[in-house]
Amino acid sequence: MAHLDEVIARVDATISENVIEHMNELLIELSDDAQLSREDRYTQQQRLRTAIAHKGHHQREEAEERRQALTKGGTIL
Q1: Which of 36, 51, 57, 61 could form an S-S bond across to 40 if both were Cys, CB 3.0 to 4.6 Å?
Q2: 19-28: which pairs have CB atoms within 8 A and are 24 or more residues apart?
Q3: What is the rounded distance in angstroms from the CA atom of residue 22 to the CA atom of residue 24?
Q4: What b/e string do you get for 32-68 counting C-beta neighbours within 10 Å, with b at 16 or more?
Q5: How do residues 11-70 score in pLDDT, each as one tens digit?
Q6: Residue by residue, what is the 3-state secondary structure of 13-42?
Q7: What is the Cα–Cα distance from 17 to 21, expressed in whole angstroms?
Q8: Cβ(52)–Cβ(24) under 8 Å?
């Protein structure tokens, strides 16, 4: 169980870092982790996938807000 606890802590830290590249790297690393059960590996990978999806959605929302702010009352110059 100690290895699983370490993996959970790493996933937590990587998610809190909020950097998609690091989340993807850990996602790939977990694919090769033979010490985890298939279910535990899947659970931690899903946490990373969900965080990546939320980050991507948030970035799209921010880009749209910036575009709206720039075009408010006219067009982008």
Answers
A1: 36
A2: 20/52, 20/55, 20/56, 23/48, 23/51, 23/52, 23/55, 24/48, 24/52, 27/52
A3: 5
A4: eeeebeeebbeebbebbeebbeeeeeeeeeeeeeeee
A5: 999 999 999 999 999 999 999 999 999 999 999 999 999 999 988 767 777 778 887 777
A6: HHHHHCCHHHHHHHHHHHHCCCCCCHHHHH
A7: 10
A8: yes
Cα distances (angstroms) measured from residue 28 to each of 50, 59, 61, 64, 71: 15, 23, 27, 31, 40
Q: Is the pLDDT assigned to residue 74 strictly greater than 70?
A: no
Amino acid present at 33: D
Query: Taking the CB of residue 69, how many other CB atoms lie within 10 A of it?
Result: 8
